[in-house]
Predict the structure.
Amino acid sequence: MALMILGLGNDLLGDDAVGLLAADRLEGRFGPDVSVGRSAQSGLYLLEHLIGYDDAIIIDSMLGDEPGRVRELEAGAMPSVQVPSAHYAGLPEVLAVARSAGLRMPARLKIVAVEIGGSQTIGSGPGAEVAASVPEVVSRVLDTVRAWGYCGPRDG
Amino acid sequence: MAGETKEIVINPITRLEGHGKITIFLDDHGDVSRAYFQVPELRGFESFLVGRQAEDAPQITSRICGVCPTAHHIAATKALDDMYKVEPPEAARKIREMVYNVFMLEDHALHLFFLGGPDFVVGPTAPKAERNVVGVIQKVGLEIGKRVIGMRKDLRGIIQEVGGKVIHPVLGLPGGVAKAVTPEMQKRFAEVADRGFEFALFCEKLLEDVVLGNPEYVKLITSDVYTHRTHYMGLVDDRNRPNFYDGAIRVVDPSGREIERFPVRDYLEHIAEHVEPWTYVKFPFLKQFGWKGFVDGPESGVYSVAPLARLNVSESMATPRAAELRERFFETLGGRPVHHTLANHWARVIEIVSAAERFKELVNDPALTDPNVRTLPTATPKEGIGVVEAPRGVLIHHYKSDDRGVLTSANLIVATQHNSARIAMSVDKAARGVIHKGVVDDGILNQVEMAFRAYDPCHACATHSLPGHMPLWVKVFDARGELVQEIRRDG
């Protein structure tokens, strides 16, 4: 069994850093079957982080009405569209590509997303509401880690 | 009512407000008066750089784009070389160029299968549901899909190993690189380079089977709606062959004649930026002609960059196989220069071969493993300008600093900005084809997308919030500003 916990975000783009912050808090708390990764990249670049894992938890930001609200999504919950450019490949496309190519991809995939507002300021750091969501994100990730049968920090 | 216009907005819903918006103005007959395409605003990053140490610029600017951090990283690093008046040792220069070609190879391969693929491999007339990367893999076969993804993984591995296994590359330093290549690494990289070359030949064959085997494709590429007779700009070496990493900036006119050739440090003498009232984005143009509007032809200041421009500005290619392919390209499309925007996809494949060949040359160069990879800067910093060919075209970084190396100003011109006038012209032409007497055809989304997809405009830089893809949204307003029609493809 191998689990990837992948934090996504851009640390120079305000609230978008939330996935990376959560990954920082999770680093070093698991046994060898759990990896913690970070990426500021997007689109098909995410593929390389996920290939070969049995399970994955992705932490990212998403546009929402209530900044700081934490939501859990299944990968299938996001619609897939034809995209006009590699710049706009989202997770659904990435998974579709990998599966259609017959690659070993995570069988279970959960997204823990934090809602963020529409306006972003370069270099501003996350806002208070979004930063305050990090403990909840960490706790939800740990719940999933345990529920999927991996060793969480208090189990081992 | 005479003089009033309708406004149509095609607005991708990205988090960065005002980005990537297409605005179409109709005249009082309901026909297209003018269509505009708005491209990314990088001023935020530029002001963020002010007050920071110059040597942080390669890390900061690599955060601009979630797709091509390597291009910004290397452009910034070269600007620092210039700022500290320091020449990197031979090994450092070759390591940078090797990493850069690996990056170009993997980025272009992504495009062939993901971006150009849906139009060229699956086919422009195939059902829309199949015209995506899954359709491409179904068409070329599962094994090939695996091979593409495996190849990219190997190439990314090299970039990470040399560039630092962190989110953003930490390779470039003023005067060199942070890490030498050992003989053991060289041996492993050389094996990847061999596979990379085989892979490039496979990409070439795929494109030839599809394009040259089907006259309909050539007809589509050469159709008028995707044709603009502009100037072209690109980096060339001392024999006027394209080079992704370094060179002089060469500009040719619409007949292919060289009209300018200059080092990047002189770019402000040759390029100026035009401001339009409807957008905060500036449109670069050639100073010697001035801004004549969104028009093509030899008297216009409009120019373009990207793979097609790179082939158009050069006299040959630096590597043998790519040179042969280049000949075929110009023979098939009627000689140099080629003005058909959709030919960018084909030009990209020729560059895949060229990047793979150059990677092979550099990785087998004995000088690559010299442990001396840094010349320590001693000069007082003041001003530095760096340039590379990003996958989408000429990328310029220009910094000024105080005596301590603290940045006092930054100017970045990204490829999509160079192309912004020509992209606006393409969108305008496409819009005229599908909007008549106030009736907006539902096909507008695809028509307009085809027009700008070949440029791969980069206007969602630095963001990838879920779901990460770009829905399109057309809004039609009547003369009173009321919404009368909405066409939307959701994400």
Q: What stands out?
A: The longest strand of chain B covers residues 393-401.
